[in-house]
Design a protein that fits this description.
Blueprint lengths: L1 H37 L14 H18 L14 E11 L18 E10 L13 E7 L17 E6 L9 H12 L3 H5 L10 H10 L12 E2 L4 E3 L2 E9 L19 H12 L4 E9 L23 E8 L7 H9 L16 H21 L6
Antiparallel strand pairs: 1-2, 1-9, 2-3, 3-4, 5-7, 6-7, 7-8, 8-9
Helix pairs in contact: 2-3, 2-8
């Protein structure tokens, strides 16, 4: 009797599992077909600015300043994102000697040219937390003494050309409207509403939630061991491009980082210090660009969509070397804290494009001015 019951129950569970598998496969097939239809080209090669974008941007600035105040420490107002730096280090940015003439624009216009730069490596969160916590990681590069009028500058930033990246190729919102809704929910501590704003399933952003969870990744072994992406598009002369920075260990002396104690709160700074300051071994990277092909689904206004590398492969345009150096001093850490990285500190040939970049222009500048004023620091450079 009991044996028969268990056999019946096992058969029933087996059928339920098969049914669930069939439903899952059907859902996967429908989802794949839907996104293949939705994410099909061609797309516009020009920006498309929504009429309500300015009003949405003002609301985001107010929420960003609210977050800055929530996360301030006892003495200083911190950044609204990427508050914790692993260090600011000197770097050398060298244009490829044999660069394709079609890509010779802006700071890439002179093959073989080397620019001196600052590089800031950071965690993504607005609060300085342990490095072992899952998080995004950021890289900011500031080229120095770049001649020419910039799209946004102060007397202190007039010679700067900035590149701002983090270690995931996609952003978890598509545009300014979704960013405003998502950011407002998170600023109010209602994280569930960030991706599920209502009971209507049509408003749910499950794909974007998955991107957000992928972005909050375990820490790398070292800040110089990650790939960092622009996420949003930019101009490169006449081209629409995305860019990324990848590790290029073959261009530096061989080096194996000793195992770090990842339980320490600042082990990523320790890893950087170990390589550059103790072992005196440089770190090497390559800057690459990906050109938009608007005949395919490579949108300018949706930062949650990857541009296909099969259609538009990345091309190396410059190398970046971080030489061995001493960087972890009180004076340099304070200098690092006062640096401001903004993708609009840029020559017109490198103009940021798309809604998220237009948002950055307003928010980065507003928060930077607010932060420096509250800290009694000179305006950012």
């Amino acid at each position: 009797m009991l044996k028969g019951f268990w056999l019946w129950l096992g058969a029933l569970l087996g059928k339920l599992l098969l049914l669930l598998a069939a439903v899952g496969l059907l859902g996967w097939g429908i989802g794949t077909a839907y996104y293949a239809w939705k994410f099909s080209g061609p797309v516009s090669a020009e920006e498309q600015v929504p009429a309500n974008e300015a009003a949405l941007t003002q609301g985001i600035i107010e929420d960003a300043i609210r977050i800055v105040e929530q996360h301030r420490d006892n003495t200083r107002v911190l950044r609204d994102a990427h508050a914790k730096a692993h260090g600011c280090v000197k770097a050398q940015f060298s244009v490829l000697p044999e660069l394709d003439p079609a890509l010779r624009h802006g700071v890439l216009s002179e093959p073989g040219k080397t620019w001196q730069a600052w590089m800031r490596l950071s965690n993504g969160n607005a609060y300085p937390q342990f490095d072992s916590v899952r998080d995004a990681r950021g890289m900011g590069i500031k080229l120095l003494d770049v001649p020419g009028d910039k799209l946004l500058s102060s007397p202190a930033t007039a010679g700067n050309q900035d590149f701002v990246m983090f270690n995931h190729p996609l952003f978890f919102v598509r545009d300014v409207a979704e960013y405003q809704q998502n950011f407002a929910a998170q600023a109010s501590g209602q994280k569930v509403l960030a991706f599920f704003p209502s009971w209507d399933p049509r408003s749910w952003e499950i794909r974007h939630l998955i991107i957000a969870l992928q972005t909050l990744a375990p820490a790398p072994a070292s800040p110089v061991a990650s790939t960092y992406s622009s996420v949003a598009p930019f101009k490169l002369g006449p081209h629409n491009i995305k860019y990324r920075v990848i590790p290029d260990p073959a261009s530096c002396p061989p080096y194996e980082l000793p195992e770090q104690n990842s339980a320490l709160p600042n082990f990523l700074r320790n890893a950087l210090y170990q390589q550059l300051s103790l072992d005196r071994v440089p770190a090497c990277f390559a800057l690459q660009v990906q050109r938009q092909n608007p005949e395919h689904y490579m949108p300018i206004e949706d930062t949650s969509v990857a541009w296909s590398e099969d259609i538009a492969p990345f091309e190396t345009v410059a190398t970046i070397k971080v030489p061995a150096q001493d960087f972890d001093s009180r004076e340099q850490n304070l200098f690092c804290d006062n640096l401001s990285f903004n993708p609009w500190h840029a020559l017109p040939e490198h103009r940021p494009i798309g809604g998220i970049n237009r948002l950055r222009k307003a928010v980065y500048e507003a928060v930077s001015v607010y932060r420096h004023q509250r800290n009694g620091a000179p305006q950012a450079h």
